[in-house]
Amino acid sequence: MEKRELVCVACPLGCPITVTFDADGNVDTVTGNTCKRGDAYARTEVTNPTRMLTTTVKVVGGSAYVVPVKSANPIPKGMMMECMKVINEASIKAPVNIGDVVIENILGTGVDTVATNYAE
Amino acid sequence: MLNYDLVVVGGGPAGMAAALKAKENGVDSIIVLERAETLGGILEQCIHTGFGLHYFGEELSGPEYAGRFMKLLEDTDIVVKTDTMVLDVADGNVVTAVNKKDGLLKIQAKAVVLAMGCRERPRGALSIAGSRCSGIMTAGTAQKYVNIDGYMPGHEVVILGSGDIGLIMARRMTLEGAKVKMVCELMPYSGGLTRNIVQCLDDFGIPLKLSCTVVATHGKDRLEGVTIAKVDDKLQPIPGTEEYVPCDTLMLSVGLIPENELSKNSGLELDRITNGPKVDEYRETEHAGVFACGNVLQVHDLVDYVTEESQIAGLGAAKYIKGEKVTGECVYTQGINGVRYIVPQRINRETDADVKLYFRVGAVYNNAKIIVECDGKEILSKKKKKLCPGEMEYVTLKQSVIAELPAEAVINVRVEA
């Protein structure tokens, strides 16, 4: 039986969670968590772990060098480095506003990359 | 001489929240003085998300969190002067500041809020042997290089100290293609939030070496490597455990120091542990009408808590200006047996609301109890599954309980393991 050890990040307690899988690779048991949120976190984390991606994009035609951006929603954890490559080749024209879409539907994730600050 | 009801020193999250709260509570003329070119303070370079989970119930980036307060400020008649350096807060609440446009400004205030924030402990405070080559910087400096100035300060990185900024920079540098070799932490536990260890180190396979420090740096013009060593329980390097790690960049995330030069020059005595002024339940310092909030008062983990504290100070300043703030006999707070400090340090017995006591513990405890006592009598106790130095805690004292305490009494807060 396969198992995975996780540390829950749902709150500051940081419960150590053990997830076991059945023969088909589906989640069998979740133990070690002390609340429902821990159970939910562990199930997502072992099936489709996602993360918010935050970085910067080059600004052209303005006084700022770069403007910070984030993924509008979490993206699959395994795609972070690939998305970074795409974002590092992109640029945006000043002026930029908070919420401006810099890259639509990055790498087919269905998630836009949006600016999180102003740039002039 | 200019006249304002309230002068706020610092336009970061603390200063903005205090100014807005004071405005909401009927203070007419308010001016915010900010040293940098823009409002927002350090949030401008904190591009990661996780800000606002408590206060807005949303996961925002630093600039977005700051942006919300800037918008609110714009909709008020609060005067904001950026690029303006405050030089002095003198007796009688006269604030002296300087900028390029107005020259020297003298402002007579009814009340002042100190919200200068904090800065990073620098290399010089660590006494690491080695030459003064380039490539050694604080994590926050590196954060500015990458996130504001848009360039990479190095490619092979060792991070000393597991404070949150160090952890965040470990991820940031990795995303931008650098190799972060390790994070060394002197203490046997991390000073950062658990979620940052998971999402910034574990996600990228970056090792966290506990009870480990950098004992020497190598390189003449540019850093070429560092020597790390394990430390014993007295935090002294253990001979024979030295290891050479090649790297071109050493980032330091070894603590934050409240920026209290103005406070000290104005004669305020600082708390030995927090390095911030001593305050009452509305964050009024020992000087009448001078309030302090945010990281200049105590270093916070979350900006959400900075906002909360600054609103208390803003409300306090408003009450002071309107002559409604309670003064008189006080009780004093003290952290003992594992509790390192308490903010606020004193409470007016006749205060008009419940008071939260904020504190940090000095070690990691599991299944412990926080006990609040006065004159040997227990006032309240609170069970805690986990306590660690990296997370600020609080207990709430009821107004009715405070009112019954004898004047000058000392409230002790301790951990029972």
Structural description of this entry:
The complex is a heterodimer of chains A (120) and B (417). Chain A is α+β, with helices and mostly antiparallel strands and 120 residues long. Chain A has two domains: 3-47, N-terminal domain of TfIIb; 54-115, CPE0013-like fold (Roll). Chain A has helices at 36-47, 80-89; strands at residues 3-7, 16-21, 27-31, 50-51, 54-60, 66-71, 75-76, 91-93, 101-103, 113-115. The mean pLDDT of chain A is 91. Chain B is of the alpha/beta class and 417 residues long. Chain B folds into three domains: 1-120 and 255-325, FAD/NAD(P)-binding domain (3-Layer(bba) Sandwich), CATH 3.50.50.60; 122-254, FAD/NAD(P)-binding domain, CATH 3.50.50; 328-417, Immunoglobulin-like. Helix content of chain B is 20%, strand content 35%. Chain B is built from eight helices and 27 strands. Chain B has helices at 13-24, 62-74, 139-147, 164-175, 194-201, 261-265, 303-321, 399-404, and strands at residues 2-9, 30-33, 49-51, 60-61, 79-81, 85-90, 94-99, 103-114, 118-120, 136-138, 156-160, 179-185, 208-210, 212-218, 225-230, 243-246, 249-252, 256-258, 290-292, 330-335, 339-343, 346-348, 355-361, 365-374, 377-387, 393-397, 410-416. In chain B, the strands form seven sheets. In chain B, strands 1, 2, 5, 6, 7, 8 and 19 form a seven-stranded mixed sheet that branches. The longest helix of chain B is centred in the last third of the chain and has 19 residues, at 303-321. Chains A and B meet through strand 5, strand 6 and helix 2 of A and strand 4, helix 2 and helix 5 of B.
